[in-house]
Amino acid sequence: MDRPPIWLRPERAARGPRPAHSRDEIAAAAVRVADAEGLAAVSMRRVATELGTGTTSLYRYVDGKDELFDLMVDRAMGDGRPPVPTGNWRVDLAAVAHAQRAIMLRHPWLVRLPATRPVLGPNTLAWLEATYAAVDVPGLDADEVLAQAATLLTFVRGHALEELTEREAGSTMADWLTKQSQRYAEQVIGSGVYPHLSRMMIEAETPHAADRFDRLFARSLEHVLTGLAAGRG
Amino acid sequence: MDRPPIWLRPERAARGPRPAHSRDEIAAAAVRVADAEGLAAVSMRRVATELGTGTTSLYRYVDGKDELFDLMVDRAMGDGRPPVPTGNWRVDLAAVAHAQRAIMLRHPWLVRLPATRPVLGPNTLAWLEATYAAVDVPGLDADEVLAQAATLLTFVRGHALEELTEREAGSTMADWLTKQSQRYAEQVIGSGVYPHLSRMMIEAETPHAADRFDRLFARSLEHVLTGLAAGRG
DNA sequence: AGTTTACTGCGCACGCTGTTCGCAGTACGG
DNA sequence: CCGTACTGCGAACAGCGTGCGCAGTAAACT
């Protein structure tokens, strides 16, 4: 039986007893676990326990773990509200980008979710809407709007993923190479096979700065926005 | 005991019997399974069976499943070679972007891997090197090189993720909304809460084109490259 | 050459996972 | 007030990652 996506199913059935929990309650519990102990700690049993309910009761609310993830994503996306538009597209897009990045940094598991299908919950749609709104101006055709929005969101997500990966690896890749396994760094540099990579490892200052990720993000974001500017009138 | 990363450990020990398999053999087997049956099918047992060996023998080669993933990533990255430089940074960067995207589309599981730490295998480093090489010119400071390379790679990965997600969801999000659950689409459009999103769903042509992803990628890539151009002399 | 040493292959076992099934209890529609 | 469509959930199943310990083997040292 092909059940419709969760966003189409009514939260409360017409007949039968009142469900003991709401979807948002479930999502909140799962997000709480993921935030505190990582995505791996989010199991059906664990979330059920967190709610004080039986494990298999969860399946009354959710079609399987994938749908639980869907709920989590949309809940996390509701953690911040899209910024109010100023009318200046560049300012608005930058605001969206920073706000999205903030959400992803606050919920590190978010960018690591399998992502096997688009999540179309209300909060996710709201962000999509805000992004389109910032990009959209009369005269710009819809395809260009799609492309620009995709460019930005895609960039933010990719950056957040890379950032979190490096953050959690304990430090910068350069640091990782030089400190935690200096021999490997020496090998890489000494091999002469990676001259440009070597130059980065030696010369770059950003990797050593405390706020490196913030600065790198801001800098890269400027690049992207400048690129987008060229695609508009 | 804190074992060093796999790239630092010798493949063959000084003493003891000759290992029955090579790392690359193992990586190839795992990649084969993932390509054919998806990431979920890649289990230690399954890969071991594929190699005709005992399950726990794998742990002689690999510290755990995470390291198996590391091997898979680097193997996949070796599936294509970085394009030969032309000297024109924009052409070279575009070539890197397209080649990277091709790899990710060929191995859909690649962008879905947990990515809890950077992979530093030889093939991955080669791609990093190629990217830096394309961006790097005398006079450009190392931080700017890092930022530009990060922008590009990050964008490519993010785009590939989104693309694969939508591809595997069966169709475009717009299609998904309108076909597979028309009621939801009507609800979304009819609610009036998402005006710009609605306009995209109605007006955009790209979502209906067969080569939509190729065109969207090319278009977005141009935006990014244009943005990068501004950061150079 | 013989002994020591450090490895390899791997069966067993443990605790955990997602999910199916079936049954008892409940609240609403007619 | 009954039938019906739901809810909660315990039991069970197949599969997972992985630690442990033991037998076998090849290189190093004496």
UniProtKB/TrEMBL annotation, chains A, B:
Keywords: DNA-binding, Transcription, Transcription regulation. Transmembrane segments: none annotated. One of its GO terms (molecular function) is transcription cis-regulatory region binding. Residues 43-62 bind DNA. It comes from the Bacteria. Residues 1-14 have a biased composition (Basic and acidic residues). It comes from Kribbella pratensis. GO terms for biological process: negative regulation of DNA-templated transcription. Residues 1-22 are annotated as: Disordered. This is TetR family transcriptional regulator. SUPFAM superfamilies: Homeodomain-like, Tetracyclin repressor-like, C-terminal domain.
